[in-house]
Amino acid sequence: MPDYRIEHDLLGEMQVPADTLYGIHTARAMENFPLARRPVRRELIHAYGQVKLACARTNHELGRWDEPTFAAIAQACGELAEGMLDDHIAIDALQGGAGTSTNMNVNEVIANRALRILGRPLGSYSPLPQVGERLGEGDDSRGAQGGENPPSPQPSPLKEEGACVHPLDDINLHQSTNDTYPTALRVAAIVQLHALEQTVIKLHDAFSAKEKELAHVVRVGRTQLQDAVLTTLGRQMGAYAEALARDRWRLYKCEERLRVVNLGGTAIGTGLGAPRQFIFKAIEHLRDITGLGLARAENMLEATQNTDALVEVSGIVRALASNLLKIANDLRLLSSGPDAGFGEIKLPQRQAGSSIMPGKINPVIPEAVAQAALMVSGYDQTIFHACSGGNLELNHLYPLVADCLLGEIDLMINACDLFARHCVEGIEADEQRCAAYVAGATATVTALVDAIGYEKATEVALAAQKQGKTIREIVLEMKLMDEKTFDQMISPDAVTRLGSQ
Question: Any idea which residues carry the catalytic annotation?
Answer without folding.
Answer: 354
